[in-house]
Amino acid sequence: MFERGRDMQLGMIGLGKMGGNMKLRLEKAGHRVVGYDRNPDVADVDSLAGLVAALDAPRAVWVMVPAGEATRSTVEELAGLLSEGDIVVDGGNSRFTDDAVNAKTLAAGGIGYVDAGVSGGVWGLTEGYALMVGGAEADVARLQPVFDALKPEGEHGFVHAGGVGAGHYAKMVHNGIEYAMMQAYAEGYELLEASEYVDNVPEVFKSWREGTVIRSWLLDLMDRALEADPKLDHVKGYVEDSGEGRWTVDEGIRLRVPLPAITESLFARFTSRQEDSPAMKAVAALRNQFGGHAVKSE
After folding, report:
1. What family classification does the UniProt entry report for this protein (predicted)?
2. In degrees rounded to 5, what are phi and psi of residue 2?
3. What is the pLDDT of residue 6?
4. 180: which residues sit within 8 A by CB, 6+ positions away?
5. Residue pair 70/76 in contact by the 8 Å Cβ criterion
6. In 3D, which of 231, 69, 107, 93 has the Cα closest to residue 167?
7. How many Cβ atoms are within 10 Å of 162's Cβ, its own excluded?
8. What distance in Å separates the CA atoms of residue 141 and residue 144, rounded to the nearest whole number?
9. How far apart are CA 247 and CA 174, in angstroms?
10. Running along the chain, 298 residues long, what does each successive block of 10 average in pLDDT?
11. Residue 47 · residue 76 · CB < 8 Å
């Protein structure tokens, strides 16, 4: 069942924007996927026990639920339902330090564990998902037909990054870089909008998509956003963070690796959530005190 190039059975837990589209892409490639979700309208079975019962041994189950407690509790429940020789894949955005704990929980029953950092978002169904995978060589090899079906066409888009935890670590760094790249495009956008020299900011971004050293898929998406809303009038400047930017900065501190661009891009997101920055109020007050500079009242 698990030889490369052959169709496989797979259980998919979590059928949201990512998991649901991954299920469709796998099925299109000829694999049989049994899906479970708390939303019965999209689920094939009504429980984790039902999902396990619907799969032939040795089983492979892919978990695509929110990181943290939701993933941990799912893995713990699977540990009591699966059998020796089965494999669990955590494809969510878990912190890499959770992987060793999950692997140990499953190993007690002889169940394998693979962590998969997945990038592709809502476009993955058609474009494919970049996969950064951690785990034992034999476990990864067994799942290779699934990885081959999910990854983009071509030579790249999949890596076995190392042992357990390596996949989520690589995805964490990927997302940290993503933070900094988005911040750079955003700052360039603001500067262009502020300039009296440039009349057509959306067309400037569009022109960069070919032949420039800053072309990228993110730039393509920025162009797409500006086509829909040239002044971004319908978007509030409030940006959340999923956690991976913070973890990347934490690792930079732990390993004494300077990450100024990634760190500043994370702090910029924090700034976006303040209606009126207390720190900037303090700066304004200090300028008034030492230099008599005017202060704007509330």
Report:
1. Belongs to the 6-phosphogluconate dehydrogenase family.
2. -105, 10
3. 63
4. 261, 262, 264, 265
5. no
6. 93
7. 14
8. 5
9. 11
10. 62 95 96 96 96 96 95 96 98 96 97 96 92 98 96 96 98 96 96 96 97 96 94 90 92 97 94 85 83 76
11. no
In this prediction, residue 253 carries a pLDDT of 97
* pLDDT of amino acid 89: 98
Residue 121 confidence (pLDDT): 85
CATH superfamily of the 9-163 domain: NAD(P)-binding Rossmann-like Domain (3.40.50.720)
**The pLDDT value given to residue 145:** 96
pLDDT at 275: 85
Quickly count: other Cβ atoms within 10 Å of residue 229's Cβ. 11
Q: Give counts: helices (H), strands (E), the chain.
A: 13, 7
Domain residue ranges in the chain: 9-163, 172-274
Predicted local confidence at residue 4, as pLDDT: 39
Cβ(132)–Cβ(116) below 8 Å: yes
Q: Which amino acid is at 11?
A: G
Whether cis (ω within 30° of 0) applies to the bond prior to 260 is no
- Of how many residues is the chain composed? 298
Residue 54: CB atoms within 10 A of its CB come to 16
- State whether the Cα torsion 148-150-156-157 is positive or negative: negative
Got the DSSP string for 49-118?
HHHHHTSPSSPEEEE-S-TTHHHHHHHHHHHHH--TT-EEEE-S---HHHHHHHHHHHHTTT-EEEEEEE
Which pLDDT score, from 0 to 100, does residue 5 have? 44
Sequence-distant (6+) residues with CB within 8 A of 135 are 112, 113, 114, 115, 160, 163, 164, 167
Catalytic residues: 171, 178
Q: Which CATH architecture is the domain 172-274 placed in?
A: Orthogonal Bundle (1.10)
